[in-house]
Each structure stands twice: as C-alpha cells, then as structure tokens.
Amino acid sequence: MLREQDVGHRIVVRRRVGVRAGRPVYADALGELVELTETHLTLTTRQGRLRVPMADVHRAKRVPAARRPTAAAVVELELAADEAWPAPTRGRLGDWLLRAADGWTGRANSALPVGDPDRPLPAALDQVERWYAERGQPALVNTPLPLAAPVGAELDRRGWGSRPPVLVQTASLVALTRRPEPGAGGAGGPVVELAAAPSADWLAVAAGRKGGLPAAARHVLTAVDQVRFAHVYADGALVAIGRGTVTGQGRWLGLCLIEVLPAARRQGLAARLVGALAEWAVETGATGAFLQVEQGNVGAVALYRKLGFTTHHTYLTRVGPPGPAAAGR
C-alpha cells in the first residue's frame, strides 16, 4: 500500500467505480500522487485531478522511477523554458521565480516553484499571492510534475483551481533536421525564411492567435539573445509562422507559436518550419528541442508525435481563488 514518501511520485491505482450484477466493477488510474490522507488519495492524471476515497482503493503501487525524468532534468528544462519566454517583470523568492507580463500568457504571468523558496511552503505561497496582488493580477503558479507535487497539494488545500494539463515534450535535433520527403510541403515547396526580428505580418498572425500583443508581449517574444522568427510566404502572403530560441546554456531549442493559416494547412508546412528552426539551432551548437502543448490539443500532439517528440513531464497552471490577497488587501 502507499506511504507518505510516495507523494510526488507516479502511481497506478485500481479503484472500485460501481457494482454490476452484484459484483464490484474496477477501473485503473495512472498519475502523480499529490496528496495522501487516511481517507483519500489525490492524483493528477491526463484527464485532470482525481480524488479517490481510500475505501474504494483495491490496490495501488508506485510506477518505477526509471520511467520518469530526474528532478534535476525537470528543473533544467523548466529554467530553459523560462529563459526562452522572458517576462519583463521578475522577482525571486529564494530559488522560486515570480513573473509578470501584463497578463499576456500564463507562462509569463506565473510563479515557477522550483528549488527552495527559503521559507516554509505556506509562507512562500502567501508571498506569491501578495506579489501578484500588488500588481493587480490574479495569482498563478506553474507546477511541474512530479517536482512540484507538494506545492500542488498545498494549493489544493487553499482551494486553487487548475487549467488544463500541459505536456512538456522533447526531441533530438538529429531527428528534427531530417529533410522532408518530396511531396506535399516537401522539396520544391514554400521556403522557410528565418529572421532575427518578427515582421509586421508575423506579429499580426501571432496577435490573432494570442488575442493581441501588448508591449509586454513584444518583450517576451524578442528579449532572448538567440532567437529566430520563421516566415513562410505563398503568393506574397504570409501563410505560416514559428519562433525558435536557443537557451539553457546553448543546449535547448525552444519551439513555440508554430501556426499555419487555415488555407495552407495539410501541406507539411509545420514540419518544414520545425525543420528549418532545428537546422538553425544545430548551427548554434544545440542538441535537443522542447515545446509545450496543451494535452487536449489533439491535432498538435499528433503532429509533434509524428515529428519525434515525446513527453518529458507535465505541468499545471494553478489559479488562485478571489479573496483578500487577490484584492490587494
């Protein structure tokens, strides 16, 4: 049976979900164990959070740790991702990062609780709430799993909500730089142009996807030493965009805003964008690529799987409830 030290680890639980013809019906659930009490256990699964009464647990066991990345690997990738998406307003709470960008995107407006906050966990989260309240913003916390499972459990106790799970996926640049086969989007297709700054057309497409681009957004997009903006034109019109950064001491290509306009889809343009950015990153000395995609974005997940990406870890963006801290009191 599970013990307190299993909190923060990946487990599988067989639980009773009903009765049929006088016999119990069981179902399995796989996820990160974020809370364990005498009466309940709570998992973060791909479908969201699952709270199971202990009376319904038939059996439960920890998934072997070899199937999960180390804590150090999660921290490394999360810090590379933070460097690739730099919020203009930043603070620190021990090792924790506090980030704000006028509310533009969750990643740039959330605390990242990796490392030691240099104070007890409840006090650290109190300070997070105050920091965002002082800026007139809702408190958000990104919780990489399983690393930040204890933080997630404390946020559960405080009544915080959660946005849909996000997959942090990685791939080798060797795989991504393989040339596409001739055919749709292959040899002879539109050229991918890389620029050190985004064009006005590029920004317009990005604004359409992200609901506008305030001044803080321009900082997030451009304030990286090694960054390239991919443009694909057809008949003089911009039909696809992408952004790539090299961060994490030069190891990681970060991919984001891979967007193909509806009229140009199903021509392999997304794969061409990724390939062009990967080739640029290889020239800088990078060896791996990462991206972040909502688990529920089935089309994008399928595309990235085809390109060779696999899930490294997941994270949840936790949302603080309205209250005295959120109101700035």
Automatic annotation (TrEMBL):
One of its GO terms (molecular function) is acyltransferase activity, transferring groups other than amino-acyl groups. Residues 192-329 form the N-acetyltransferase domain. Coiled coil: none annotated. This is Acetyltransferase (GNAT) family protein. InterPro entries: Acyl_CoA_acyltransferase (IPR016181), GNAT_dom (IPR000182), Rv0428c-like_C (IPR056935), YpeA/RimI_acetyltransf (IPR050680). SUPFAM superfamilies: Acyl-CoA N-acyltransferases (Nat). Keywords: Acyltransferase, Transferase. Pfam families: Rv0428c_C. It comes from Micromonospora phaseoli.
